[in-house]
Amino acid sequence: MKKFLFSILCVLTGLLVGAIILKLSGISPLEAYKIMWMGAFSKPSYWAYIIIRSTPLILTGLSVAFAFQTGLFNIGTEGQFIIGSLSAAYFGYILHFNPWIQIPLVLGLSIFFSSLYGGLAGFMKARFGVHEVISTIMLNWIALYFSNYIVMIEGFHKPNTETSEYINPSTSITFLENWKGSDSGISWLSQHPTLNEFMKPSVNAGILLALISVLLIWILLKKTTFGFKLKAVGLSPEAARYAGINVNKKMSQSMMIAGGLSGLAGATQVMGVSKNIAILATHEGYGFDGIAVSLIGSNVPMGSMIAGFFLGTLKYAGQKIQSALEAPSEVIGIMIGAIIFFIAVPLLFERPINQLMKILEKK
Amino acid sequence: MKELLFLISTTLMYSTPLIFTALGGVLSEKSGIINIGLEGMMTLGAFSASLVALKTGNPWLGLLAGGLGGLFLSIIHAIASIKYKGNQVVSGMAMNFLGSGLAIFLSRLFFDGTSMTPPLDLDKKIPVYLGQYATVYLAILLTGFIWFIFSKTVLGLRLISVGEHPKSADAAGLNVSLYKTIGVLSSGFLAGIGGASLSIAIVSNFRPTLISGQGFIAIAALIFGKWRPVQTAFACLFFGFSQALVIFIGGKEEIHISSQLLSILPYALTLILLVGFMGKTTSPSALGE
User: For the domain that residue A80 is a member of, what is the CATH number?
Assistant: First the structure.
């Protein structure tokens, strides 16, 4: 409860900082926040876009949060995400099964390779004492260039483009993709305007996978011995070792699961939204955003879910002030930075939180 | 011979931003404060440098402004980590968001909604002496200077002692917070200069993808250099060299290696070196506390 209040307080203060910055730049904060609110919730298609935006954020946030529980800082989300989306794009293109086999198979392969990739950092930490922050930074770049290399391979590369070939339609996890474009679909949807609006963007099963992952990770951490051991390692490696837990193994396993979650995020992006991958000039920021989500959600699974939706909404709605007010949408980045800053200094909010808690307890 | 010179000069050029930033990182971490926000400080520095260089026409004022841009963020980081004893890694991440957010936000305000600043004229960029930007020489001088501070001066000794054992330093009558603040603020200033050495020397404008991870590479370099100034600078040269190599081989038609695969080289090599040859790294003992 206290953690939740703290996060809320940090978020509100962050929004206030955003308002001050806007005001200082001569833009009306009230107007901007109104446009963002309308731009997020006033139409069913906006809800759909927010869900699509939030899906990878929930998963990468969950990945970072999970590693934090074992005392590891997973900056490698970005690279694991790339390996996941690369695997999904590649196997989704070369394999031709019916959807019932194809989708689980491609998802499984993406999770498998990205968890190996994440596990590599855990292994190097456990076996050679290489700090996971530096190894994952290196692995992020290796993943980026490796993916770029594979995209350009003949047969996979779409000629005269900077992108790969599209995945097989049987790999798609977009809801009712064919039906939406069919005659019966179009006529049915035109009679149901709300659903019609909602289905316009590529709403996909990714969000279900993300929510299931949140639940599974929550169960893993709360209800299983394995999760208990992982948390013990996170709280005190020395004590865990003394209690007979194989700390090194737990670190590798934790990073494998974290890697798999990030990879799943990448796979859902490809299978549900983009359907192919492109040459990347630089990292797209899923890793950074995942760290932000995890921190705002106080590094627990449920928190990642709520914070993932929050950040997804903020990022989607933030674009709207650019066109409507010519207000730089980067104010969102500043707000996120401010929120994380306040999260870094709990002392700042100690007193207000304690007072709030007292009031709540009296009730 | 000509090709060798090309390699050397490109190496020096690309190492410079890393050297400034990584040495800044050394100063901060030696004093016991983790600064994972170097990336954001470089970004804001790169922007403020190009803004001031454009408006005043003076690259040196631009360079200074770059330092001040980084300094601004490091003040916030110092308040969080030293005054309020906050989580340094989390605060550092906040600086990364703030740095790139502020830089692009301000760019859009100053330059009609574009995230890129207009290009500087050649004569308003950092001048070139003997085929190298002046910042290259500055970086080399700085390496010697920081080495001198840590191995020959009282200030250096005090910085190290507050990072190794703050309680003893305090008992010995040192103002621990003051020295930690010096460490963090100089890291921000230098990271800002590092960013500036990109935006007003190597290229001629600021753009959102300009820094793209170099702040993190600088952190890798300082761990690679075991928190020692000269070794850290060499680690930066190594990263600069591999970038130069990619450009060099990419320009040769007779060599058929994918430039993408080649770009993996420095990162893979770093990992291999870390695993195989480094032994245990020894960070300042009270780092992050």
Answer: 1.10.3470
